[in-house]
Specification:
This protein has 436 residues and is α+β, with helices and mostly antiparallel strands. It has helices at residues 2-5, 14-35, 44-54, 64-80, 89-102, 105-126, 131-215, 222-252, 294-303, 319-339, 376-380, 397-407; strands spanning 254-259, 262-267, 307-313, 346-354, 357-364, 411-416, 422-429. The strands form two sheets. Strands 3-4-5-7-6 form a five-stranded mixed beta sheet. Strands 1-2 form a two-stranded antiparallel ribbon.
Length: 436
Amino acid sequence: MAVVNRDPLTAPHRTRNDAFLAVGVAVLAVIFALLLDDGLPLGPPGWALLAGAHVPLVWRRSRPLLVLLAVAACVTPYHALDYNHAVPIPATLLALYTVAATGTVRRSLLTAVVVLGPTLIINSFTNPDGALELLRISGWVIAVLFFGVDARFYRQYVASIVERAERAERTREEEARRRVVEERLRIARDLHDLLAHSITLIGVQTSVAAHVLTADPDRLDRKAVAQALDDIAETCRTARGELRTTLEVLRANEMSVSVGGEREWVAEPGSGSSSGPGLGSPDGRGPLPGLDGLGALAEAARVAGAKVELSVHADGVPPSVGAAAYRIVQEALTNAVRHGGRDDLTVRVGLRAAEGTLRVTVADDGAGQGTGHGVSSAVRNGVGHGQGAVGGAPGFGLVGMRERARSVGGTLDAGPGPTVGFEVTAELPLPREEPS
């Protein structure tokens, strides 16, 4: 079966194998010449023509048409001399089969016409009364050509199945690579949202403690210093618990997917976000973040010195959309606290569900320092507010927020506010309820 499935034009060692086949067919012809009596006994010209008909078979797959012509050139005078007619039949049929198995149907039909015409003409002169013999010869020629065409179609069918299987395998590998890349981006977003928010709050609280210690050493407000340090410790505990939950979610929901002999680790759907702000357990671990955690975010920003006005008018928001909205608000508040540039910073956070869309708005009245507010063109190109990093290097705040919005099919726009400050607006689609 493997020999039939293999393309004869690309098979390995085809010339060597065809040489062995030619020798085998020649041996069979000699046996026929010695045992069968279907014409005159072979003389030197007959043996020479018979050998000439078998030698070209060595290159039957490399040059099928030329081999057929060479065989016909030797077999035609052989039959015309009325030598044993059964002897060259195997070589002739093998050459015909090769032409049909390696060419098109049109070429096979033309070959049948070209071969049958001279054959019938020669047979009519050598055997005028052999009508049955003419039918038998025509039947053999047509049957061999048909078998060759059928073998070629079968090989094409098998090749198409193999090609589809290989294409499906490549598609699975590409899909696996894509999922790995998406998973890495998701983990990067989670860690960025978690660490950037917590480190920003720690930085602000540390600055408060340092200011209290250095502003008036003679009248040290020990209570204020202790409060600032307690806030730092609480932020660290929350960040540690949230980071632990993020890692636990990743480990608990991993699935092993074998692709091409390699192992790919992919988190199950629903683990796209880490835990919330540390509500519901002493060590800061809790369920997936959602709209219920916005109050804790607002309180953390207030501790950092910002005035936060929170307004939420949304019920029945799916967990995935709620998690995306939570992370967008978290990053926007972090950017406002980091880049606000004023002591009396006010941040207005609003969430409203209407017409199948959850609209998220975070606007502040900050003066803008560093890479933050007031850089319209840079901000809208992804550099600016929320993008600042140590040494002025660009960060991933706006990129992460836009990816959060796109992950649930939404959009996000960020830029300077209408008058002052900075504004982040996101529209996240809500799934429509099926009518009961």
